[in-house]
Design brief:
By secondary structure, the chain is an all-alpha fold. The protein has one domain. Helix content is about 80%, strand content about 0%. It contains five helices and no strands. α1 packs antiparallel against α2, α2 runs parallel beside α5 and α3 packs antiparallel against α5. The longest helix is centred in the first third of the chain and has 35 residues. It starts with a helix and ends with a helix. The relative contact order is 0.13.
């Protein structure tokens, strides 16, 4: 039931990513048109808006990648063939992601506090808008990797029980 909820949540994140990519196209198109054609004046706020959207797209994309298991991991040993060695290999990856998630969550709170005391140059937006994406992403990395690790352990234990 929790897995279904988290999967539905990630579907919502994918939809949000699509909307944000579409929204990102608007200020970027405005920048390109103003720079190369002169049809519209150069608006400096478009660069800041594009940066804000891009930061959020990257962080939300990383959350979805952790859920899907499409994040980047390096295998320093050959792929495991047995169920226990596969669990250990996957467990090391999930634990590493959980450690980084905890670090991003813990230090991201201070980073967000730092950003909340600043404003962007053109839009005068509080920079906590983008800085808060760091602890949010870290929290979801921690949650999703923890759930995936739990799933892997349960699957391993069920396999062992059925084989006994």
């Amino acid at each position: 039931m929790i897995g279904r909820f988290l999967d539905t949540f990630c579907i919502g994140l994918r939809i949000l990513l699509g909307v944000m990519m579409g929204a990102l196209a608007i200020p970027v198109a405005m920048q390109v048109i103003s720079r190369y054609t002169g049809l519209i004046p150069t608006y400096l706020w478009t660069e800041e808006l594009a940066t804000f959207l891009f930061v959020w797209i990257v962080m939300i994309g990383s959350i979805v990648a952790v859920w899907d298991g499409t994040h980047f991991d390096v295998r320093i040993t050959r792929d495991a063939t047995g169920p226990l060695t596969r669990l250990i290999q996957d467990g090391v990856v999930h634990v590493a992601i959980m450690i980084f998630g905890a670090l991003f969550l813990f230090y991201g709170i201070e980073y967000t506090t730092f950003g909340s005391n600043q404003r962007s140059v053109m839009m005068r937006a509080n920079l906590a808008i983008t800085h808060i994406s760091v602890p949010i992403a870290g929290g979801f990395w921690l949650l999703f990797s923890g759930y995936r690790l739990f799933e892997a352990v349960v699957q391993f234990l069920n396999r062992e029980i059925t084989q006994s």
